[in-house]
Amino acid sequence: MRFFVVCPGGLEVPLAKELANIAQRPDSKALGAWVIDPTPTSPTGGVGLAAPISAAMSLNLHSRIASRILLQMAEAPYRQEEDLYKLASGLAWEEWFSSQQTLRVDVTAHRSPLKSLNFATLKIKDAIVDRLRDVTGDRPSIDTAFPDVRVQAHLTATHITIYLDTSGEALFKRGWRDEKGDAPLKENLAAGILSITGWTPGQTLFDPMCGSGTFLIEAAQTALAIPPGAIRAGIYGDDAKPSRLAYRPLVTSAHGFGFQRLKPFQASGEEKRWVSIKEAVLAQMLEKRKQYPDAQSLGISGGDINEKLVAMFKGNWQRAQLPDMPVTRQVDALASKPPANVHEGVMLLNPPYGERLVIKGGRGRERGADDEADSQNGYEPDESEDRYAHNLETGRQSAKRSSRESLKKLQAQEEQDPQFVEFLQQFGQHLKNAFGGWNVFVLTADMALPGQLRIKESKRTPLFNGPLECRLFKFEMHQKRDPAAPTE
């Protein structure tokens, strides 16, 4: 079978590396041969691979960076809408789901000659329901909010590819986050950024503006071999208590992944494979818990000036099935210090860029400009990554326009907020004074951040946080030389 693994723009390289690691797991090898496509040299919005159908189970459970796992159903040339209908109606949908299940169809395009994507979507939807009606005597209902089955199609200038979505809800919705908002960093983007930093379990990791703890929780789960889909897979059994506010109530073991509602995965053989995959995961988790018996042993810590965010972080940490309470405290980033007896490590942060400092209760995190734009256009911010799947170049053009507009707003805010500009200058000096020997990574949409910190970056990586174009800046903080030390 052919799969396309969707990811946020800019994370194709770490995703390809992650897929290779998943394919090398003993429980993945037991499913059959995997062949991963060459690592993309330019943004593609994902990575393709060939693998047994059972690989959908491992990919959905283990991939921290993926947004969705799409199973390719057909690919063919087209010239007009009727060609889409003919291709879709010729597929044996009745072998994958029943007419009693609800359906959603999405279409993306790049340089398609068709005038209306809405009409193309309608033709594919009609083809599927007409096929099921002809075969079963009944037709499925359409549900765009909470569908049982999702079908996606992508149009190029000459070809159409049709996919079944094996994920269901987007994979960044882990189920442990208690709050949706004020524009939290998506979990899969945080995981991809961790991979880019080169951080490895056992290495010191610190976030002085940790907010609700996305970076730190993703790192802790990685260290403890807790797969990102653990809550949905029901690995914790009755011990897991997913938040009622975790994006949607569907992100629980009761609803699971999209593949669990497809007929081929309900066969006894596939169900046994699913049980075996989860048993292998549980055994690995138990071994890692012996290595890291408590939060202190992980070497992962953070702080934030906002008391409410620190409380959210603690709640998220517990729902993510991590040990004890996180090593964190309410503290201004300007007063943050490295952990005791630690002289080097990785600092990773996503500052509340371009926003005013909230003196009462800490530094506020308001909705990002990308969320505001999405709301005005009737989009759900949660689905922003889906709109970039297999449609990256077109998406990047609109994202760049959105980014330029957002940056103008951010720059205008900063010009009116000298307190924030002063804070960045003070924070840059604090990094030089207190964190010599550390590698500092900052995700921001403010391209002028290095100048505001007055530190020269050693690397900048383009990324997309939803539709907002960002940069991950790397700063190598050098140790200050002791003036009393003898010179050679």
Any overview of this molecule?
With 488 residues, the chain is of the alpha/beta class. Helix 4 (81-89) packs parallel to helix 5 and helix 6 packs across helix 7 (214-223). Residues 245-250 and 354-401 have low confidence and may be disordered. It is globular, with a radius of gyration of 23 Å. The longest helix has 25 residues, at 392-416. It is 35% helix and 17% strand.
Could you provide a short overview of the structure?
By secondary structure, the chain is α/β, with parallel strands linked by helices. The chain contains 14 helices and 14 strands. Strands 2-3-1-4-7-6-5 form a 7-stranded mixed sheet. Strands 10-9-8-11-12-14-13 form a 7-stranded mixed sheet.
List the helices and strands and how they pair.
Layout: E1 2-6, H1 12-23, H2 26-29, E2 35-36, E3 46-50, H3 55-62, E4 68-77, H4 81-89, E5 103-109, H5 117-136, E6 149-155, E7 159-165, H6 187-197, E8 205-207, H7 214-223, H8 230-233, H9 268-291, E9 300-304, H10 307-319, E10 327-330, E11 346-349, H11 369-376, H12 392-416, H13 418-434, E12 439-444, H14 449-453, E13 459-465, E14 468-476
Parallel strand pairs: 5-6, 8-9, 8-11, 9-10, 11-12
Antiparallel strand pairs: 1-3, 1-4, 2-3, 4-7, 6-7, 12-14, 13-14
Helix pairs in contact: 4-5, 6-7
